[in-house]
UniProtKB/TrEMBL annotation, chain A:
SUPFAM superfamilies: Cyclophilin-like. Transmembrane segments: none annotated. GO terms for molecular function: allophanate hydrolase activity. This is Allophanate hydrolase. Keywords: ATP-binding, Hydrolase, Nucleotide-binding. Its EC number is 3.5.1.54. The keyword Nucleotide-binding applies. InterPro entries: CT_A_B (IPR003778), Cyclophilin-like_dom_sf (IPR029000), PxpC (IPR052708). The keyword Hydrolase applies. PANTHER family: 5-OXOPROLINASE SUBUNIT C. Signal peptide: none annotated. Pfam families: CT_A_B. Residues 23-310 form the Carboxyltransferase domain.
Length: 331, 239
């Protein structure tokens, strides 16, 4: 059992999401950084898509009511009873211990997974909180102070006594996920349907650096910069969308749809972010800058493979460690 | 001299069927590396949507697709993994479109009581300006229409309705309303619908309907389904 001691607004329970219902208008939701969620789960022996806490407003504090294996990945600086934990780390907490997360400069969101996963009801196949739909998680709402969270049955009971961590993806995969010298996030994308209707402005879309405005959340990021506009007004028939679509409302400042995106929209779309780069966008902070880099399907496949290999490696290592610990415990 | 062409496919000369004009081809574009959007050629009408429904049914047999999202005379196909050859995907989609026959979904009829005008009709005056019609005429044209649910999307249970009288088409707003109420009866371009969530909304509101459209815990969560017929019944007109 977990007790939430201190939380800001908009921290929610998320899993890998609720795909499969977009044709009735239900957004997929799920972690903004699915890779961090998966790794947190793998470190505590869960299925990679189990429900965890997504923390995006800090400080965040919770108390363990009994011995519990947990992992913290993504952003945030974690401490257990005041003792700092390394980033991307799993450990076992004792009854009464308090886990605290403070913000980190580089990444916007932290994930806390618990052995057994958070036990909230499945709604349309997922435990993810849909704030817009007001269902999933705990009654479709953000976590609040004094919330009590129940855990499922852990798949593993023996964990490394001194904890276990992984090399964060930004380090392990740094060659494949570059950042510009001035810190600008480089987000790979492909031109989308109405790209060419933007005429000369289309080039300005790719060349300028955009700032993630304060009007950004799990639904989408509004970007500020020099507006781009189609050469003539475009009135579209509504079409299905996915996270990563970059739409341009009449004002000319793009919106990138994120995990809680609508399932359909009608603004002209200039680009679509590669799925493999969405986790980095999910970790981008309000006020930071990004630039879109024109990519290809071939590059998308290379990145997909690199991410899959990284996650598989952690999954295998984690299982190996678990087996070794079990063998030692059995002696 | 060319004769005016009757609106029947039987009357189209054979040679023009064999060499379709370029605009008869669907447009296929991508969103990211895994999602492909097919947009039907031609008018925004029921025949085009029936073919989209048929395409959706055919695509449900494709093992490599994770999700299919029919839109308004378009369809988004989301692949489970990034396809190796996007051109091959485009060709497969084109072929599936060519083969898709029309499906006539005989849905149920849903009647929705509407309070036209009043505090929620925030954009009725703008609609008068845009159309040159009086508020009374706009309300009459809206509630006299018979609408077909073309697709669901955007928000849980939201039905995109086709059948809006062209005289009251109205572009989406340049600046969306930040907090439009659930239940607002709205016009977005050539489409109409009833807002299912309170929140930002770029469509134009002309009235209000208190009608539950979605229950995530129900066996069938969405009230509306593609092919359903919708009629708006004026409960009250506050002008």
């Amino acid at each position: 059992m977990i007790e939430i001691l201190n939380t800001g607004p908009l921290n929610t329970i998320q899993d890998i999401g609720r795909p499969g219902y977009r044709d009735i208008g239900v957004t997929a939701s799920g972690a903004m950084d699915p890779m961090a969620l998966k790794i947190a789960n793998l470190l505590v022996g869960n299925d990679e898509g189990a429900a965890a806490i997504e923390v995006q407003t800090f400080p965040f504090r919770l108390r363990f009511s009994g011995a519990t294996a947990f992992a913290v990945t993504g952003g945030g600086r974690a401490a257990l009873d005041g003792v700092s934990l390394p980033p991307w780390w799993s450990q076992t907490a004792g009854a009464g211990q308090v886990l605290e997360l403070l913000p980190s400069p580089a990444s916007a969101r932290a994930y806390i997974a618990f052995a057994g996963g958070l036990d909230v009801p499945l709604v349309l196949g997922s435990r993810s909180t849909s704030l817009r739909g007001a269902f999933g998680g705990i009654d479709g709402r953000s976590l609040t102070n004094e919330d009590i969270l129940q855990l499922g049955e852990p798949a593993r009971t023996v964990f490394a006594a001194d904890g276990l961590g992984v090399v964060p993806p930004a380090t392990a995969l740094s060659a494949l996920f570059p950042v510009a010298a001035d810190g600008t996030l480089l987000v790979r994308a492909l031109p989308a349907g109405e790209h060419d209707l933007f005429g000369a402005d289309a080039e300005r879309f790719w060349s300028q650096s955009w700032k993630i405005s304060a009007q950004s959340d799990r639904t989408g990021y509004r970007l500020s910069g020099e507006p781009v506009r189609p050469t003539a007004p475009v009135e579209m028939r509504s079409y299905g969308i996915v996270p990563g679509v970059v739409q341009v409302p009449p004002g000319g400042e793009p919106i990138v749809q994120m995990s809680d995106a609508n399932t359909a929209g009608g603004y002209p779309k200039i680009a679509g972010v590669l799925e493999a780069d969405l986790w980095r966008l999910g970790q981008a902070r309000v006020g930071s800058r990004l630039r879109f880099v024109r990519s290809s399907h071939a590059e998308a496949r290379t990145l997909d493979r690199a991410i899959a290999a990284y996650v598989d490696d952690i999954s295998n290592t984690s299982q190996m460690v678990a087996r070794a610990l079990k063998t030692m415990a059995g002696r | 001299m060319t004769q005016p062409m009757p609106h029947s496919t039987n009357a189209i000369p054979k040679h023009s069927r064999n060499t379709p004009a370029p605009q008869r081809q669907p447009q296929i574009s991508t969103i990211g590396a895994r999602a492909f959007l097919l947009e039907a050629p031609g008018d925004f009408d029921l025949p085009a949507q029936r073919r989209i429904w048929a395409l959706a049914q055919a695509l449900r047999q494709w093992d490599d697709l994770g999700e299919i999202v029919p839109g308004m005379t378009n369809l988004l196909a989301i692949f489970k993994t990034t396809p190796e050859d996007p051109d091959a995907v485009t060709a497969r989609l084109r072929e599936a479109w060519e083969r898709a026959e029309s499906i006539d979904i005989r849905g149920k009829t849903i009647e929705i009581g509407v309070i036209y005008g009043g505090e929620h009709a925030t954009d009725l005056a703008a609609l008068c300006d845009h159309t040159g019609l009086t508020d009374r005429e706009i309300v009459r044209l809206h509630h006299e229409g018979t609408y077909t649910v073309f697709a669901l999307g955007s928000a849980p249970g939201f039905g995109y309705l086709h059948g809006l009288d062209p005289r009251i088409h109205m572009p989406r707003k340049t600046v969306p309303s930040l907090k439009m109420a659930r239940g607002c009866v709205t016009i977005g371009g050539m489409q109409t619908g009833v807002a299912v969530l309170t929140g930002p909304n770029g469509w134009n509101s002309i009235g209000f309907a208190d009608h539950q459209m979605f229950d995530p815990k129900a066996a069938v969560p969405a009230i509306m389904a593609p092919g359903d017929t919708v009629r708006f019944l004026p409960e009250r007109i506050e002008l």
